[in-house]
């Protein structure tokens, strides 16, 4: 059925678009070229800033959509910063997190945190994951699924904490895509552009946070350059 | 869905007498419009981005066959499957077959207008597969046994009191009535359903030919849980959703959220490509895309091709004086507002839908705010011509139009006639200056008085006051 439908639909389109004519091969070439080029269109000048400017814009935009943003110099300050964030909000000191060595090597018990590296389940209250990059333009995180960074970490728990390297706070979405093409040979199953916590306006058009995804989104920007082995998920 | 578009006039009358609906629509008037304007003003490149968005869609439509083939090939390379459906019945059959093959007893769905269009909900129910809508508004509409009245905010016509009643009835818990408590309750009620579902069905905001990806945009995060938790993900998309590259999608996304809700970017924009990878810890094992034609391939190359640029942002209805007075249900089918007035006759036939293109003041705001610059009034005018040619309008309207057209082509006659009528009506209107009733104008005077002309035409007054000199 589907094969027959496919033929019929494509046939109708080809007829409507005069694919038999002399221009047909030109059209095919145009399509091939456009697909290969993956050329960015107009990119708003808003994010056209230096390193610090991008981080400031990212922070302001993310805060405008009810995310909270914290900046740290080094990764080893992460456990304490997260513990403080959770204590201040009376949240359990227990989290599920990405299995990336960058996080695994940190001293979590010293900050009284119980961590487990796995995918998130329904009962998990706090999820911690690493962003592939961030986009200053709209305060958007770019998360990529990988064995080390399962998607559920940022969607099931009520509190989502995401770490992003300061050097990867980019100008625009297209810059994030370009970085992805450079660093990986294939696309991940899921790329999530996340801009603030989950929200809904469906009941009397009143903005409510935490519809299905996280109620809180806490973003930690870390200045320390990622050398060492680097997060495996970025390799 | 059985169309009731032919009853538009009655539907509209009922809607205007419904205080709850009028209050709900009042919000759209201020909320959606102000937010869109603010977002557009904040981005200096907004107008240029609209031009690019239009160009991307025009280019894609001119090469639609080739981009669809490229898309299909990439999906297959990534380990997914593509299914084609000529019409709604085929689409339903394909989806049901996939659900059965997955052994589905329950499916979760994230809001999808194409699924409404093909009547998937009824089909799932008829085959005994439990369906859970996960978009909060759509879930509310499902509990009420209704259909969406807005393509973005399906439950825009309901008060929180009505939602509270529905939840109390269906969740078997004490009644709560604050939006916050209602959202909590829905979150809890739906959580388990995500895990129980065997299949997750989503629509698609865009399909990416270069990568075989499906792009999903939500604010709630429900599409991510819908497609990410069950073993099988089925994305249902109409042909015109395809765009060449992820970069093209970025341009369209920049105008989509701003035009829709006035957000800089929706909370979640997700690009899914193929099924779960070998070592991934989550994601569906099966990834299907159902490509639905349902008449679109006949629109390509026709006078109506521009409507296929539509990215379903809802700006046209949010700015339409008719939609904001009647609400979405009055339109009597899946798509309301100006885009619905153009689309609906395509699907249900002009005989069934001929009131809709006439339900417009032709103020042009829909075109002014459309992110992909669809000339909606022009397209509605095509339908009006069709309506005239097929004699669907009442004889008085047809003869009246013909008479007016005759005069309008003869300025001398027109001016003479106008002078005569203005003078006569001015005389008849007398001191009261208005008419309670007037032959042939019952449509107007039935609900309000008609102000009488002062006796002289505009041109006469203009000359008398030395205008133009």
Name the helix and strand elements of chain A from N-terminus to C-terminus, one letter apiece: HHHEHEHEEEEEEHEEEE
Query: Which homologous superfamily in CATH is the superfamily of the domain at 43-154 and 191-297 in chain B?
Result: NagB/RpiA/CoA transferase-like
Distance between the termini of chain A: 43 Å
- Gross geometry of chain B: globular
Care to count the β-strands of chain B?
12
Q: What characterizes the major β-sheet of chain B?
A: 6 strands, parallel
| Spatial sequence of strands, sheet with the most strands of chain A | 1-12-7-4-2-3
CATH topology grouping of the largest domain in chain A:
Rossmann fold
Assign the structural class of chain B, choosing from mainly alpha, mainly beta, alpha/beta, alpha+beta, or little secondary structure: alpha/beta
Give the averaged pLDDT of chain B, no decimals: 93
CA-based gyration radius of chain B: 25 Å
Instruction: Please mark out the parts of chain A with pLDDT under 50 across 5 or more consecutive residues, or reply none.
Output: 228-235
Count of alpha and pi helical runs of chain B: 23
CATH fold annotation of the domain at 43-154 and 191-297 in chain B: Rossmann fold
Helix content of chain B: 40-55%
- Amino-to-carboxy terminus distance of chain B: 60 Å
* Overall radius of gyration of chain A: 22 Å
- Domain tally of chain A: 2
Percent strand of chain A equals 15-25%
Biggest sheet strand line-up of chain B: 1-10-7-4-2-3
């Amino acid at each position: 059925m589907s094969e027959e439908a496919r033929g019929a639909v494509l046939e109708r389109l080809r007829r409507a678009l005069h694919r038999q004519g002399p221009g047909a091969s030109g059209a095919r070439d145009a399509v091939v070229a456009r697909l290969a080029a993956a050329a960015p269109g107009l990119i708003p000048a808003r994010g056209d800033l230096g390193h610090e400017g991008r981080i400031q814009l990212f922070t302001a935009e993310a805060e405008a959509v009810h995310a909270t943003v914290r900046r740290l110099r080094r990764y080893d300050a992460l456990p304490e910063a997260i513990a403080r964030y959770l204590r201040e909000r009376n949240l359990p000191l227990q989290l599920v997190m990405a299995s990336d060595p960058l996080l695994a090597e940190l001293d979590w018990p010293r900050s009284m945190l119980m961590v487990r590296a796995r995918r998130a389940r329904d009962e998990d209250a706090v999820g911690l994951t690493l962003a592939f990059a961030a986009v200053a333009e709209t305060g958007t995180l770019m998360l990529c699924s990988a064995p080390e960074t399962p998607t559920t970490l940022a969607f099931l728990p009520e509190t989502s904490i995401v770490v992003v390297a300061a050097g990867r706070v980019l100008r625009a979405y297209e810059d994030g895509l370009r970085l992805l093409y450079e660093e990986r040979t294939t696309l991940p199953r899921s790329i999530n552009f996340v801009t603030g916590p989950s929200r809904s306006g469906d009941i009397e058009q009143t903005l409510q946070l935490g519809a299905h995804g996280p109620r809180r989104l806490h973003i930690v920007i870390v200045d320390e350059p990622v050398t060492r082995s680097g997060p495996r998920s970025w390799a | 869905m059985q169309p009731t578009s032919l009853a538009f006039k009655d539907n509209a009358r009922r809607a205007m007498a419904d205080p709850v609906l009028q209050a709900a629509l009042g919000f759209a008037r201020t909320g959606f419009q102000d937010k869109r304007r603010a977002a557009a003003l904040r981005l200096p490149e907004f107008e240029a981005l609209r031009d690019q968005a239009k160009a991307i869609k025009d280019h894609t439509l001119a090469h639609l066959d080739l981009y669809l083939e490229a898309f299909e090939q990439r999906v297959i390379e990534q380990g997914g499957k593509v299914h084609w459906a000529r019409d709604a019945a085929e689409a339903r059959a394909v989806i049901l077959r996939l659900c059965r093959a997955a052994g589905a007893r329950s499916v979760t769905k994230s809001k999808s207008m194409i699924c409404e269009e093909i009547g998937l909900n009824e089909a799932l129910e008829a085959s005994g597969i439990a369906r859970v809508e996960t978009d909060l508004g759509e879930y509310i509409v499902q509990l009420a046994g209704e259909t969406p009245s807005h393509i973005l905010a399906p439950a825009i016509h309901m008060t929180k009191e009505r939602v509270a009643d529905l939840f109390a009835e269906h969740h078997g818990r004490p009644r709560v009535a604050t939006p916050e408590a209602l959202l909590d309750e829905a979150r809890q009620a739906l959580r388990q359903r995500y895990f129980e579902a065997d299949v997750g069905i989503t629509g698609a905001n865009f399909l990416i030919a270069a990568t075989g990806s499906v792009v999903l945009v939500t604010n709630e995060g429900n599409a991510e849980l819908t497609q990410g938790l069950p073993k099988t993900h089925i994305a249902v998309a109409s042909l015109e959703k395809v765009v060449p590259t992820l970069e093209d999608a970025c341009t369209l996304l920049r105008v989509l959220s701003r035009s829709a809700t006035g957000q800089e970017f929706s909370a979640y924009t997700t690009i899914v490509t193929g099924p779960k990878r070998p070592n991934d810890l989550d994601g569906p094992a099966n990834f299907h895309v159902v490509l639905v034609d349902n008449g679109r391939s006949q629109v390509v190359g026709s006078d109506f091709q521009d409507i296929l640029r539509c990215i379903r942002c809802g700006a046209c209805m949010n700015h339409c004086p008719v939609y904001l007075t009647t609400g979405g249900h009055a339109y009597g089918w899946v798509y309301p507002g100006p885009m619905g007035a153009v689309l609906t006759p395509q699907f249900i036939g002009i005989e069934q839908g001929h009131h809709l293109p006439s339900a417009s003041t032709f103020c042009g705001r829909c075109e002014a705010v459309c992110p992909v610059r669809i000339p909606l009034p022009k397209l509605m005018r095509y339908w009006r011509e069709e309506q005239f040619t097929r004699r669907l309008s009442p004889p008085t309207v047809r003869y009246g139009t013909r008479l007016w057209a005759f005069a309008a082509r003869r300025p001398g006659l027109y001016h003479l006639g106008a002078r005569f009528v203005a003078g006569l009506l001015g005389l008849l209107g007398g001191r009261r200056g208005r008419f309670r009733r007037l032959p042939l104008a019952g449509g107007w005077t039935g609900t309000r008085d008609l102000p009488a002309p002062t006796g002289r035409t505009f041109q006469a007054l203009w000359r008398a006051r030395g205008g133009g000199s």
